[in-house]
Design a protein that fits this description.
Number of domains: 2
Largest sheet: 4 strands, antiparallel
GO cellular component, one term: cytosol
Mean pLDDT: 94
InterPro entries: ArsR-like_HTH, AsnC-type_HTH_dom, Dimeric_a/b-barrel, Tscrpt_reg_AsnC-like, Tscrpt_reg_AsnC/Lrp_C, WH-like_DNA-bd_sf, WH_DNA-bd_sf
Protein name: Lrp/AsnC family leucine-responsive transcriptional regulator
CATH architecture of the largest domain: 2-Layer Sandwich
CATH superfamily of the largest domain: Lrp/AsnC effector binding domain/regulation of amino acid metabolism (RAM) domain
Number of helices: 5
Structural class: alpha+beta
Shape: elongated
Strand content: 15-25%
CATH class of the largest domain: Alpha Beta
Number of strands: 4
Low-confidence stretches: none
CATH topology of the largest domain: Alpha-Beta Plaits
GO molecular function: sequence-specific DNA binding
Distance between the termini: 22 Å
Radius of gyration: 21 Å
Order of helices and strands: HHHEHEEHE
Organism: Sphaerotilus montanus
């Protein structure tokens, strides 16, 4: 159920707390927002049911899994003169879902362009992904890769 939900100040405080500490107990959360645990539970369920809270996840640092290299790859798809461009984009969007190395894909305002966050073990793994996977996609015309030297900020919590 993806209905529009009006958030009040208490909802926003609940969301802010849950974004920082998703495993907080309802009692602890209730103390933070100054409500009863049952009232907090009702509000959290309403936020979940309305789709404001889409889910909960563990945050795993890539290096803990041996994934030492992160790259951002700008992908430009072919721009055919006819209407087949939409089909090329649809195929690319569907295919990218199956690539585990791609942890994020966004469509850019530049025509037929996407930005991929690619997380791999090392440069050889990145090369294999590029040559054997990404560049083999029939719609890909050009790619430009930028490698992450140092991650300055990674914030999962949205500003509330």
């Amino acid at each position: 159920m993806d209905s529009e939900l009006t958030l009040d100040a208490v909802d926003r405080r609940i969301l802010a707390a849950l974004q920082l500490q998703g495993r907080i107990t309802y009692d602890e959360l209730a103390a933070q927002v100054q409500l009863s645990a049952s009232a907090v539970l009702r509000r959290v369920r309403r936020l979940e049911d309305s789709g404001v809270i889409a889910g909960y996840a563990a945050i795993v640092p890539p290096h803990k899994l041996g994934l030492a290299l992160t790259a951002f790859v700008e992908v430009h798809l072919q721009r055919p003169a006819d209407a087949s461009g939409a089909r090329i984009a649809e195929r690319f969007r569907a295919t990218v879902q199956d690539w585990p190395e791609v942890t994020e894909c966004v469509c850019l305002s530049t025509e037929m362009s996407y930005l991929l966050r690619v997380v791999v073990t090392d440069m050889a793994h990145h090369g294999r992904f590029m040559m054997d996977t990404l560049l083999q996609h029939p719609g890909v015309q050009e790619c430009r890769t930028s490698f992450v030297l140092d991650q300055i900020k990674l914030q999962h919590a949205l500003p509330i």
